[in-house]
Design brief:
Layout: E1 7-8, E2 14-20, E3 26-36, E4 39-47, H1 55-67, H2 73-89, H3 93-102, H4 108-125, H5 135-146, H6 151-170, H7 196-208, H8 212-224, H9 228-233, E5 239-240, E6 245-248, E7 262-265, H10 268-276, H11 300-307, H12 316-331, H13 336-343, H14 348-351, H15 355-380
Antiparallel strand pairs: 1-2, 2-3, 3-4, 5-6, 6-7
Helix pairs in contact: 3-4, 3-6, 4-6, 8-10, 8-12, 12-15
């Protein structure tokens, strides 16, 4: 390709060549030459029309380059490459979120967390790395959210921020934060319970509903106290009908609420439900779409609740788990330690919400002595009754 003819200007080190503009007409393209750090540099300054370039403007660019006020084009490209490389190694909250959600099971839970991230975490924290977060900034977000959201909702949002950061830290993608992310205190002592009549109506609604799978899942929650996610995650390999135990692995095989795998006994009621299920090719006891893991009850749970005439705030699965625990505590035959193990609670404090039910049962049990003594006194007052010195007939 023939070399373009160069035309000098009135400014030393500034020349131009004739090229074609965007409209196809001839256009001057200005170049500058200079020496920087002992190295000869030649680079384009700009086009006559497209960049509104002139010999004087090109000379000003050349002067800035010579004096080191502006980087050369080559240096600019080098700096941009260095910056891009540095950016590629930066794990911001947004980038960590992208990695974190790829390892979450698709479903309603992930959808909810995605909305939480986009609506409340992306703008204030998305472009920051965890080590750049300041406690005051997180506190301000918490305080502002509490003005329009419930403490429980704000706690969920800040829990998500904590999970994202912990994911990055555990996988050596970033450093963690240097402070504790404070969450609102939430009174979650709500223990949904059913009266005997409500329970009877619910079991009748389950029996009459056409969705057998959802009915069986609700029965499992009532008979075993298992969590919704644990039931969705239950596989046939987790059931040992010989020893009579169910292995609870929790979501992603990480155990109940992300802890270690645990076992709970398979009582006769739960066994009856499990043995009634027709097994398919799916590894899941209650498979979802295409035999995969189930992620929702669909409309069946709501439909059954309404058919039973239960309150709208009664959660079909979680409420039945609470009902299971309440019935055991109310029986007075199960102590708090055993109940904690059956519910797979991490700490006794989580089980204490049911303590008042057991206390009531114990009071009723202790109260039986009153009836015994009253009956004894009544018998002692019977005419003609002979009582020996020890008070026995």
């Amino acid at each position: 390709m023939p070399k373009q003819e160069r035309y000098s200007t009135n400014y030393p080190g500034v020349y131009y060549v004739i090229g074609k503009g965007s409209d196809g007409k001839p256009e001057r393209i200005y170049y500058i030459r200079y020496v920087r750090e002992g190295k000869k540099i030649e680079e384009r300054a700009g086009r006559q029309f497209q960049d509104d370039m002139s010999p004087a403007k090109a000379n000003n660019i050349r002067t800035d380059r010579v004096r080191g006020r502006v980087l050369s084009n080559a240096k600019k490209r080098e700096q941009e490459q260095i910056q891009k490389a540095a950016e590629s190694k930066r794990y911001t909250i947004s980038r960590l979120w992208d990695e974190y959600r790829l390892n979450r099971t698709p479903g309603k839970g992930l959808d909810v967390d995605t909305n939480r991230y986009k609506n409340y975490l992306k703008d204030p924290f998305g472009e920051k790395e965890p080590q750049d977060l300041v406690k005051l900034d997180v506190d301000r977000v918490r305080i502002n959210l509490l003005k329009k959201k419930s403490p429980q909702t704000v706690k969920h949002i800040l829990n998500l921020l904590t999970w994202i950061i912990n994911y990055g830290s555990k996988n050596n993608l970033c450093a963690g934060v240097s402070f504790h992310i404070q969450k609102p205190t939430v009174n979650n002592e709500k223990t949904e319970d059913l009266t005997p009549d409500q329970l009877k109506a619910l079991l009748a609604a389950i029996e009459s509903d056409g969705n057998i799978a959802v009915g069986n899942m609700m029965r499992m929650a009532l008979y075993s106290g298992m969590r919704r996610g644990e039931i969705f995650n239950l596989k046939w390999d987790d059931l040992n009908f010989e020893t009579g135990f169910i292995c609870i692995r929790g979501e992603n095989g990480q155990g109940p609420k992300g802890g270690k795998d645990q076992k709970i006994p398979m009582n006769d009621m739960a066994r009856g439900v499990l043995e009634s299920i027709v097994r398919t090719k799916s590894p899941y006891v209650f498979p979802g779409q295409n035999g995969g893991k189930r992620v929702t009850l669909g409309q069946a749970g709501k439909r059954i609740r309404e058919a039973a005439g239960l309150p709208k705030d009664f959660r079909p699965m979680h409420g039945l788990r609470h009902t299971y625990a309440s019935m055991l505590a109310s029986s007075g035959k199960v102590d708090m330690y055993v109940l904690q193990k059956l519910m797979t609670h991490k700490s006794p404090s989580m089980t204490q919400r049911y303590a008042h039910l057991r206390d009531e049962a114990l009071k009723n049990g202790a109260g039986q002595i009153d009836d015994i003594f009253k009956q004894q006194e009544s018998e002692d007052d019977t005419p003609g009754k002979v009582v020996n010195i020890q008070g026995r007939e």
